[in-house]
Amino acid sequence: MDYKTSGVDISAGEEFVRLIKPQVRQTFTSRVMTDIGAFGGFFQPDFAAYDNPVLVSSIDGVGTKLKVAAETGRYDTIGACLVNHCVNDILVCGAKPLFFLDYYACGKLRPSMAADVVEGMVRACRENGCALIGGETAEMPGVYAENDFDLAGTIVGIVDRDRTVNGSGIGNGDVMIGLPSTGLHTNGYSLARKVFEGKLSEKREGLEGTIGEELLKVHRSYLSVIEPMLGFKGLHGMSHITGGGLMGNTMRIVPEGLRLDVDWNAWPELPVFDIIRREGQVPEEDMRRTFNLGLGLVMVVASGEAGRFMEHLKANGENAYIIGQVTAS
Fold first, then answer.
1. What percent of the chain has pLDDT over 70?
2. The domain that contains 253 carries what CATH number?
3. What torsion do the CA atoms of 296, 301, 303, 308 make, to the nearest 10 degrees?
4. Is residue 148 in some structural domain?
5. Residue that terminates a domain, selected from 140, 163, 186
6. Are residues 261 and 294 in the same domain?
7. What is the widest separation between alpha-carbon atoms in the chain?
8. Confidence grade of residue 4 (pLDDT, cut at 50, 70, 90)
9. pLDDT number for residue 6
10. 39, 56, 274, 303: least surrounded by Cβ within 10 Å?
């Protein structure tokens, strides 16, 4: 008996590291102090531009979107989904990303497949100006089936304390502005997979490709759109529309005594959501609690400043929508 026959192949792990090292190094900035393979990732932040710097962190996964990737044999998008999800989570707090770490666990390590996942992470890290400084790869037979794997990521970002965005300034009459999603992003996949079971290779009217291709669209990052507006007067709060839907996530930042008055017809819903609704006969309440329904991020802004935000967004080619307002409960 040896380690390999028990289910763990150290050589496969070494091959995986060899494959990803050149990719991961592409995300390094002058602030990264260690190479891949060290026991810890060293990052020297530059606090010179901040009066009172605050580090903001978040951790998340991509849920059962992994099962869609496995069933279709396509692994190059889920890594990017993971990074962008985490970027958005700290972005709505006003923070910009500094560095990212990943955790990849599986029943049997297949180096080339895992490298495709990391390639997506590298691509998204570069697009977000974020360094991928380390991670953990765990081969765990007995915990995961041979073809199963899981993926999680941790991000650390920075914001000046006086420029944090936490919803505390939200008041009666504030306007909600919604920004479009690219699809399901990384939520609602357990329901979507049930609706489309055995149908991922099929096509539907309104979709650009197959159902599987639609479900694997990359979770969008809003950093490039939102970053120029972080200093705008009247930005009171932001929510990343993930599990719990528009209402559930936006109410997390709304002070007590206020409620959201949403116009659910104010934006065009992506075709995939109506296909899920019809083919799965999913109740509307469940659709709204489970999916983003075409909006991936919501900004809550002062009513007198809403026009300025909309002008900026439209000038930069963004199809933003005024979707309602905050009112007294």
1. 100
2. 3.90.650.10
3. -90
4. yes
5. 163
6. yes
7. 72
8. confident
9. 84
10. 39
121 and 36 in a common domain: yes
| Integer Cα distance of 41 and 55 in angstroms | 16
Residue 77, Cβ density class (10 Å: 0-12 exposed, 13-18 middle, ≥19 buried): buried
Pair 147, 273: CB distance under 8 Å: no
Domain boundary among 131, 163, 195: 163
Render the burial of 275-285: b for 16+ CB within 10 Å, e for the rest: bbbeeeebeee
Total count of residues recorded for the chain: 329
Per the domain annotation, does 3 fall within a domain? no
pLDDT of 50-71, one tens digit each? 999 999 999 999 999 999 999 9
Q: Considering the domain boundaries, does residue 168 fall inside one?
A: no
pLDDT in tens, 301-327: 999 999 999 999 999 999 999 999 999
Characterize the bridge pairing of strands 175-180 and 295-301. Answer: antiparallel
Q: Which amino acid is at 142?
A: G
Of the candidates 24, 58, 62, the residue with the CA atom closest to the CA atom of residue 217: 62
Q: Which strands sit side by side in the sheet containing 175-180, from one edge to the other?
A: 235-240, 295-301, 175-180, 321-328, 258-262
Q: Helix, strand or coil for residue 196?
A: coil
Q: Which domain holds residue 48?
A: 10-163
Token match 């802004």: residue?
301
